[in-house]
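Bit of a strange request maybe. I'm writing a small parser for structure token strings and I need a real example to test against, not something I typed by hand. Could someone generate the tokens for this chain?
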Amino acid sequence: MDESGTESGAETGAEVGADATTEVDVRSGFHRLRARLADLTWVQRSLLTGALVTVLWTNLVQSGLYNRLLYDGLFLFAGPMALALTHGEHIGWRIDRVAVRNAVLLSLFVLPFYLVGSTLPSIRAFYPLWETSTAPGEFVPHAVMLFFLALATETYYRGLLCVGVKDLGFVAVFISPVVYMFHHIGKPPLEFLLSGPTDVLFGAVDYKSNSILPSVIAHGAGLVLLDWLVLHDPLFDPTPALRYLDWVPIPL
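Reply from user aminoacidic:
Good idea to test on real output. This should exercise your parser:
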């Protein structure tokens, strides 16, 4: 065999050897990663999944109600539920007397905020997020879809990242507010500022209830009520409220 053939054969053998080494390294790395993931506790897996969901949702979600139904349903609802079911863990999907009582109390507590908010110019200019009307044939399906979005949101924020990690203690209530506020960027300034405290309030009630029912009802009913109110004339003149809040350094 001539020298060129020898060199060609040597190069081919070297390439095959390199490919085999690379494949072994990849398999080894995969096995190490799988072993590390297997060693994670439920709380660690929940927080890791929560971070991954945030990255995916933030970068992939698209505008439009049907797109939101798809992406929220996939990432915020199906993802946490699948993790909980495969691990036999509880992320707040339960209904009992305490949960129902706290759902009523929380809804009544936030009701005035929705009533006053629906009269503010910045809120009325922003909502409804998706086109609808007061005709029952349009508004009822719209309301059902809003309620599902609230269910998906609460399954992620208050379910996976709060009730689901109760082993951390009450500090679990403070895990999701920063992410929740981040996802409210672009909404009216007042709503953005209130999103953090609202997250803490909803989380605290769900934590004590060991159920996400209170926040699902308060959030879902609130979204539906707000759209309904904004589609009508203001319930009352917002001028007194605006005058009372004129110290707030944001447009209302």
